[in-house]
Design brief:
Blueprint lengths: L15 H8 L4 E2 L1 E7 L3 E7 L3 E4 L4 E7 L5 H5 L3 E6 L5 H6 L6 E3 L4 E3 L5 E3 L4 E13 L2 E13 L6 E4 L2 E4 L6
Antiparallel strand pairs: 1-12, 2-3, 2-6, 3-7, 4-5, 5-11, 6-10, 8-9, 10-11, 12-13
Bound molecules: flavin mononucleotide (FMN).
């Protein structure tokens, strides 16, 4: 039997800023989602809501703010790539978090096999075709079917924790 109740002071009302603060305790990697843009240019948006969903078939999801300038472009893209950033790519993460994302070109990108763009120097990338989209409150949930895997570098990932960029601390075991 559980006899103790959590202290009242540990509980916070559920508002956007408290929710963001609490969820910020959950460290994530940082990715850039790349989609085709007009004039054969590529748009990159920084995303940390990436989650793997299923192994067979291989599915991932990420969430895109409905009010984001890049929302419609990303949601209407039938294929896209997701690059997992390395610890030294914080500047790119910030650039792609600007309103509307960032228009990327050489030398930041490489062409993939299936017609998408991958971030050069990322630790790993995946290519996806859009499988489903679902409403998710003020976000749209985009589910991608993974069509190719790229492992580019044996490098440390960029980490986002409590609204800051940080790095993985190497354990001794
Ligand atoms: C580390 C980090 C992670 C982010 N993750 C997401 C995300 O998962 N989904 C999302 O919609 N925006 C995310 N953003 C915000 C977008 O990169 C970008 O700032 C936003 O789409 C711009 O919105 P705007 O066009 O309305 O200004 C993230 C930003 C940062 C810095």
């Amino acid at each position: 039997m559980i006899t103790q109740r959590v202290q009242k002071e540990a509980s916070a009302p559920v508002c956007s800023s408290n929710f963001r603060k609490i969820m910020g305790h959950f460290p994530t990697g940082v990715t850039v989602v790349t989609v085709d843009h007009r004039e054969s240019c590529c748009l990159g948006v920084t995303i940390n809501s990436l989650t793997s969903v299923s192994l067979a078939p291989p599915l991932v999801l990420f969430c895109m703010k409905k009010k984001a300038i890049a929302h419609d472009l990303v949601v209407n893209s039938q294929s896209f790539a997701i690059s997992i950033l390395a610890h030294n790519q914080q500047e790119l993460a910030l650039e792609c978090a600007e309103p509307g994302g960032a228009k990327l070109a050489d030398p930041l990108l490489v062409h993939s096999y299936d017609g998408n763009f991958l971030v050069r120097g990322a630790i790993a990338s995946i290519e996806c075709t859009q499988e489903e989209i679902y409403p998710g409150g003020d976000h749209t949930i985009i589910v991608g079917l993974v069509t190719r895997l790229y492992s580019e570098l044996d490098n440390q990932p960029l980490v986002f924790h409590r609204s800051r960029f940080t790095e993985v601390l190497q354990g001794t075991r």
